[in-house]
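It is worth pausing here to work through a concrete case rather than discussing structure prediction in the abstract. The textbook approach is simple: state the sequence, then state the predicted structure, then interpret. We follow exactly that order.
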Amino acid sequence: MADYFTRKKREIGVELNEVQKQAVLHGNGPLLLLASPGSGKTTTIMMRIGHLIEERGADPARIKGVTFSKAAAEDMKQRYKRMFPTLPEVDFSTIHSLAFAVVRDYLRKEQKSWQLIEGPIEDPADYKANKKLLLRTLFQRFNSEAMTDDQLEEMSNYISLIKNKLLPRKKWSTVQCEVANAEAIAAEYEAVKREEPDKLLLDYDDMLTLALEAFQSDRKLLRKYQQRYDHLLTDESQDTSLVQHAIVEKLVEPHQNLCVVADDDQSIYTWRAAEPQYLLDFKKVYPKAVILMMEQNYRSTPEIVNAANEFIKRNKNRYEKNMFTENPEGEAVRIKVFPDYEDQAAYLAQELSKLEDYRDAAVLYRTNSSSILIMNELERARIPFYMKDSDVRFFSHWIVEDILNFMRLTFNSGRVDLFEKISMKCLGYVTRQQLFELRKQPEEGSVFDRLLQLKSLKDYQKKQINGLKRAFVRMEGGEPYHVIRLIREQAGYDRALEKMSENLGFSLEYLHDVLSTLEQIARKETGMVAFANRLKQLESLLKTSKFNKHENAVTLSTFHSSKGLEFKKVYMLDLIADIIPSKNDKTEQDKGNKDPMEEAARLFYVGMTRAEKELELLSYRNRAGSKTNPSPFLLRVNKIIQPPESEQVDESRVPQNPNALRKVSDLEVGRKVKHRVFGTGRIEGFSEDGLEIRFSKGTKRLAIDLCLTMGLLEPVE
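Step two, the predicted structure:
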């Protein structure tokens, strides 16, 4: 066998380590290959396929490679061709493509016609022929209002989740969904698709469940597909759902020649029904399976690898692995904590402008809303960017439209149509009947003056409408940032959002995020018209950024979308508590459910391991006038890369100090503090090394979390 590896090193320059060679040489039977980030998994898979064909005589047509996405399938196909240009083709495809072939055969045999309801349609009136239109129609029927894009996405995810988890109808209620009447809408959606017994309407998830159903009910069809392949390889299997695993199990039942390539530490799609637990239970399904761990990282510096490896070890529900690298040493992982949210964007623009090649850098964040302010700063600095999976829904969000309608009303206070759109979201609740009366009045003067003339108004309404009128007078001709603050504080918008969130289950945290982003954009605009035009410009810029994919541009991406990518320099931003991990992650942990918190840690780990040479973690102490706390993940990394100078202090022996500083917000620059070991000093600021305090014997850099949790600092009055 050594001849094979020697030959391949000579022919294509590929040299494998010992674990990779074991994976290539593995004979028949199940193999679970746990591949750490940057461990060369695709090369190993290709070498295994080549070995099966060249050394073991396997028929290329009887080898099946299954991947998570079309892009991954195409990448593997091209990689195989480059490495083995003289060998016949191997079949690489997505699991959905495989399921599609099975369903097509099955329904042909059952003499049933079918129609795929994903994608565009010719006749918009035929709402049943399009999944999105069908869901919007049903939502309107059940809730008597139009469905927003966010609700459509939430509803689609809900339906996909219950199918991929193979949940029976009686268990649909166990899946959380914020869309009103979601369970009833899903049931009606399924009923409509099966109204005609001889013609099924199918979505992509139906392809999976129906393929499994076909295998379970038609033994002849199952044998046909079982006999088609002698070897099956699945990539990115940590992202595979229960129904997808079940299809693969059926296919390999006779021979068990299955090679599963995955990394349980990179499972970040449980909200899409991925089942990381399946990997941990692999030996229960395949008792004779061999499990190999590819732990050597070829991508990143030791500083990045060691920090990421130690970070993910805090997760409990995982295989015990130790990622390492033999790459040369590089830059230390850097942590920067800025005074304010907007300082982060300014810093990024400043740093990215120094790059010779913009393609070397990526800016990563948890939510798409984080990208808007970064995009705003990069455009001003003339730095080109490519946004992976760009999402323009921010600009059509109802909060954005509300703010613009408030501003429009300041230009023409007589427009009843504008007031109607915002009347439920400001001071002075006006009934539908009163709005009807208002519309009947002559259009003279402001809507506020005309409202005050209505005889049906109660005294408290008059008082509130007068207050609203005064707020709009202050807004007239004002700077956009000042106007937004007046809308939120004096027009009652923030209070209205709190009530809506309470009654309708909206995330108030996310709504405040949208408002905060609008405020930051508004700060640099003079005039409300300029602000509105800037939003249009940014929306257009976001839409066209997808054309920069292969250009010299900085990549902007969510942590989720960055998976599989690598860059010389990575910035991870908005690393504050309640963003990563989210408030919901923390709530679930407090209830005893640690799974969401562990997935958030895996998501953070994915972001860290995208970096080859340099990694910077960015946070800030204030956002829109409110104090923030650093992400506990940031504090964990800080402790790893900068072990505390006072770590010799035994926590169990430190007496409780009721005066100790316990919150990050208490660590104000310039504040005098007393440290248990080093005495009295003054807080100088935050740096990549943690908290800087100047004592009489010099400046010390201390771990923030250690100082707070152990109560090592107390204020000096």
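Step three, interpretation. The mean pLDDT is 90. The CA atoms of residues 200 and 557 lie 38 Å apart.
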